[in-house]
Amino acid sequence: MQGVTKPIKNAVRAVAYLLEEMEDYMLVELLQETVNTQLSTMSEDLSLLTMDIKEKVDNHLEVKLADLDKSIDRINQVIGKLKKIKENTSRTNQGTNSIQPGNTRGHRTCVETLVAPPPHANPRLLAKEGIKARQLMLEGLDENSKLGKMDNMQLKEELNKITRMLGLEG
């Protein structure tokens, strides 16, 4: 750049410097706009994903709650049957109550009645009633339920635990 004065050289340098800064500013603006677009698209996708997950979880919970309500109804029916059996056995035992040694309640248990029946009891009727009582415990158990998957000993222990919690004895 010979023959050019110093102020012109400075002016050309200043313009070059300004053009470089302007180019950097435009590049930054372009990058910022791209990032903002990508982030807004990603946030929309995440929003749709969370709404879909929420909907599926709600549907799953509705199904499970309906199953739970059915199970509770079945349990309440079994409890009702057990209470009726207790009432029936206590009514039939009221006339034949005798206090056995070791039995301070004055009530005979089902096992005591079957092992040592009262003298006027019909043995066939006792056997039939014993079978009915055992069958009632097993009727209506869903194979997929917790009780349906238990073996006989586990089922017996679980039902004994439930009757103790309910205060049913005998």
Structural description of this entry:
The chain has 170 residues and is an all-alpha fold. The protein has a domain of 75 residues. It is built from 4 helices and no strands.
Strand content: under 5%
Assembly state of the chains shown: single chain
Number of helices: 4
Report the structural category: mainly alpha
What is the string of SSEs from the N terminus onward?
A: HHHH
Question: Mind summarizing the main beta sheet?
Answer: none
Q: Which blocks of ≥5 consecutive residues have pLDDT under 50?
A: 97-104
Question: What gyration radius follows from the Cα positions, in whole Å?
Answer: 42 Å
Query: What is the number of beta strands?
Result: 0
Overall body shape: rod-shaped
Kindly, what is the distance between the CA atoms of the first and last residues, rounded to a whole number of angstroms? 117 Å
Q: Overall pLDDT, averaged?
A: 78
Percentage of helical residues? over 70%
